[in-house]
Design brief:
By secondary structure, this protein is an alpha/beta fold. It has twelve helices and eleven strands. The strands form two sheets. Strands 3-8-7-4-5-6 form a six-stranded mixed β-sheet. The chain has a five-stranded parallel β-sheet with strand order 2-1-9-10-11, with helices on both faces. It is elongated.
């Protein structure tokens, strides 16, 4: 299948979009980068500095995203630090890959199905293994409580280290109009609910009909449901795997030529 020069709007944060944009180009499409989330690291936090200075007090450390890994190792820890008796976990294969690039290879993860529900199915997180254990969840500010709540129910002591913020980018209104009035993407890729909500907020009301009529590729059924709730009438395709390749396959299903 080929995208045959179709314009694909990519809403990922700019520093995470290169690989996906290259895949779109290789498939014959044109990627239009329009980040709807800006990542800002929480820096110079005394609370976080103390947390990571005492990292070896924890039995498990769970990284929720690639952003979490980068924020920690660029500001609070070094790959050369020793993690005594700590089991590292990653929400999915992408996050585990970033950890492996830091020379940390003993990392449990859930493959391409990168979500809290799948992580909780790991045998190592059963009640008999986490009861009375200290677990640190490294994530962005806010987010779902499902993982922590379930681990607490299993008897674990859970702390958070919130190391970055997801912010709404600032665009000139004319830039937002141009997306729908001049560029006119033929499909959209959104990889999170927050990115989807921000896309709606960044789309002028006069252009929202174009937005809702554009085929949409998403990472999860939850995002698909949200898209329908906010007004999407075009076809929505959920990626079979939570990866760049999965998103590309979803776009090809939506607008590709066989």
């Amino acid at each position: 299948m080929t995208l045959n020069k179709r314009r694909i709007l990519v809403t990922r944060p700019a520093h995470q979009a290169d690989h996906l944009c290259k895949l779109i180009t290789q498939a014959g499409g044109e990627s239009i980068l329009f980040p709807t989330i800006e990542i800002k690291v929480v820096m110079h936090s005394e609370e976080l500095a103390r947390c990571f200075a005492n990292i070896n007090e924890y039995d498990f450390v769970i990284f929720i995203s690639r952003n979490a890994v980068k924020a920690v190792f660029e500001n609070y820890l070094s790959p050369s630090d020793t993690f005594e008796q700590i089991q590292l976990l990653a929400i999915g294969a992408g996050t585990a890959t970033v950890l492996s690039e830091m020379k940390m290879t003993d990392v449990l993860h859930t493959g391409v199905q990168a979500d809290s529900e799948t992580l909780l199915l790991l045998p190592e997180l059963k009640s008999e293994f986490v009861r009375n254990k200290k677990i640190l969840i490294v994530r962005g500010v806010g987010g779902r409580e499902l993982l922590a709540d379930n681990l607490k129910t299993r008897g674990a002591v859970v702390d958070y280290a919130e190391v970055y913020q997801r912010c709404l980018p600032e665009y000139e209104i004319q830039k937002c109009h141009e997306i729908w009035q001049q560029i006119k993407p033929e499909a959209i890729i959104v990889s999170s609910n927050e990115g989807l909500n921000n896309l709606l907020e960044l789309t002028p009301e006069s252009d929202q009909k174009h937005l809702f009529n554009t085929p949409l590729a998403v990472m999860s059924a939850r995002s698909a449901d949200l898209a329908k709730e906010i007004g999407f009438t075009a076809e929505i395709e959920v990626a079979e795997s939570k990866s760049d390749e999965g998103l590309l396959s979803a776009v090809l299903e939506l607008v590709g030529d066989k």
